[in-house]
Amino acid sequence: MLALLSIVGACGKGTGNDEIIPPDPDEEEPTNVDDFFTNPLLPRGADPWVTQKDGTYYYTYTQGSKLVLYVTKKISELANVTPINAWVPPPGTMYSQNIWAPELHEIDGKWYMYFAADNGSNANHRMYVVENKSSSPVRGSWEFKGKIAVPNDEWAIDGTIMTHKEQLYFLWSGSNRGASPQKIYIAKMTNPWTIEGDRTEIAAPIYDWEKHNGAINEGPQVLINPEGSVFVVYSASSFSSDRYALGLLSLKDGGDPMNPEDWTKHAEPVFSMNAESGAFGPGHNGFFKSPDGTEDWIIYHARNLPDGGNTNYRNARIQKFTWNSDGSPNFGIPVKIGEKIKRPSGE
């Protein structure tokens, strides 16, 4: 059986090294500035990703030329962390350049980093994975395991994984040589670096809000609610558009992830631009728990400026989210830049 630790439903309850003292219900809510943080966490941080284990957060993002990791007990203090170079690709390969949207996962006691890369030409973007057999992703060494591809080996980015009923799956965004439309696919895996059989398309851009500056569905992220229902949160439209937003897919209870008829796409975005918040093009997200395991949080990138801003300055932001009565996630609206946010519970 595959034992998967990621940020989708299987997150452990880490408490860190500090003693957590419950607040006195008769006392007023703390107002010390140290109890709060503000977004953005970092001035840059396209395609942010967080996973956690034993009270430690591991953060990564699209650095471009290598895989990096930030290690911290307090995700709200990410700006104080010095990144670690986890893996640098050798020159002159098909995966040496344009490393995008890395993700860190632990599977059966080993660590894996999934990423898209090419040889300098976007048309050659494919998904790849490296493996670390150490108990910690910042110890030991990373071994290149290879390309993750289906038989037709088309353009692919934004890969992630899901375990459902003891079966490991790979989800990603793909298209014909990187041209619109970009769709979301799923395939079974025989191990963390090998796809079994062919892919199934589970989402394509069909609504107007998914077609700003390009018809795109990308950045799939698996989210499992407290009742065990499976969702995929994805990004829609081009990342360069202010209208870049998050959409939602729902897997029918008891459904087969490989059957496209068992997936339902919600007709409206679930998280989108808010000019008053200084959140333009919010998207490409991940999920994590608070240190004490009581809160659900989303991490995403956005730009401070409108009209495409400077797409190089997508920055990482986090905020707490809740669940609707039908079991779907409620992300609210992006929190305003500079607005005080209570730190994740347990920090």
From TrEMBL:
GO terms for molecular function: hydrolase activity. The keyword Signal applies. CDD domains: GH43_LbAraf43-like. The keyword Magnesium does not apply. Keywords: Glycosidase, Hydrolase, Signal. Belongs to the glycosyl hydrolase 43 family. PANTHER family: GLYCOSYL HYDROLASE, HYDROLASE, FAMILY 43, PUTATIVE (AFU_ORTHOLOGUE AFUA_3G01660)-RELATED. This is Glycoside hydrolase family 43 protein. It comes from Sphingobacterium chuzhouense. The lineage of its organism: Bacteria, Pseudomonadati, Bacteroidota, Sphingobacteriia, Sphingobacteriales.
